[in-house]
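Standup notes, protein team

Yesterday: finished cleaning the Fibrisoma limi BUZ 3 set.
Today: DUF418 domain-containing protein structure.
Blockers: none.

Input for DUF418 domain-containing protein:
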Amino acid sequence: MHLFTICLNTKPVTPLQSPFCMTPFLTTEPIAVAPARPVSQTERIRTIDMLRGVALLGILLMNIPFFSMADRFSDAFRNDPTNVNFWVSAVITVLFEGKMRALFSMIFGVGIILFVARKEQADRAAFGLFFRRMGWLVLFGLIDSHVLLWMGDILYFYGIIGVIAFWFRKIKPGYLALGVLLVAIFDNVMYVSFYQDMRDKRLAYLAVEKVQQQGQKLTPAQEQTVKDWQAVQESFLPNKAEVAEHTRLMKSPNYFTVASCHRKEVWDSQTKYLIYGIWDPLALMLLGMALYKWGFVTGQWTRRRYWQTMLVGYGLGLPLVVFSFYASYSRHLADTEAFVRYMEQHPVIWTALIYPFQRILLVMAHASLVILLIKSNAAKGLLNRLGAVGQMAFTNYVMHTVICTLVFYGYGLNQYAEWQFYQLYFLVAAIWVLQLIVSPIWLRHFSFGPLEWVWRSLTYWQRQPMRRTVSPS
């Protein structure tokens, strides 16, 4: 699905930008019987908070164009190296696209183990608490996507996929890692199936088009073929007239007009296309579980092993992603029309099959780099701020939605389709600075971010204490 949501710059169908993971837990001693409660500040694993903070800020790099840019926005610069937008897009695609989302999914998988383990050690109903937690997450996702109008919401998907991943939490890490490979293969099969279904509808439409050109009357089946392709085109490959109409609706000052612009497609992605969207994050959650059990994400490896992982990840991953980027953007993705022509002639986009492999290599390299910085005490102030951003990731993720919709949508400042692509990243930088400043200040006075507090109170079905009773270390 990455090909259609990122490369073609149309509405995301199975968006995968995770906001946060479960509450970390550090102790391994049996816990005395006590009411189930959220993790305390002293029990947090700071490395995980910092990795989550990096992923949260990084994911905005990929999300912001879908808040702000018209469909097919990259057609103007996709294969034009003289355009600054091309190089901004290239850097983001090569280094960050999919990698930050992968890191979110991995940390979410870690969180499943951490949340459940503590409850099981306390002999509490971990099953009920966890499923209640995921149920609220699904509801928050529906609010984020259908009320706040973020078409790329991931909360809904993670609530559902988390329930599936829950059943794998006790499997040995080697089998979890093998599961990643199996699910990645299955995910590629699903992608090829999706692509070929689209291609079949295109070829069938072309056959009907010839009949129309000959002046023959269409049968009901042929009329349905036309409708099927038009539905695909509207969702994934809009023509210029459809792009213009979508832009007009998004710039409307009426909230309900803007909402009508994408609610149906968001709901389709949450129902009809759900089967295509669960495998990728599920595989990465399993990988996160394995890496936690192996001690990778908690910083327990030696510096040498992290260096080796980073060098192998960058050494193999960067050539693969650069080749994939070049092949895609210089050939079948020069623009949307070029992609359609390519699709008519090729049953598979072979370079797209590189995606899961280069992404895993690079996310492991990125994570190793962050952990090496943590272990070296370099940039300690920045890393502590990233940890605070990660601890408040739910609040900060929804803050992205609120800020971006109010800046770009018609009922806000109405900047939709007004900015150059590169200009979006000035706003990204401003949001980063804001959250890096505000999150630590908030956590000096409160134990949770505002939305984290709501989520925990609903999970435990008990109002949680909000203000700190002791200063954070």
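Follow-up from PR in the comments: Residues 173-213 form the longest helix (41 residues).
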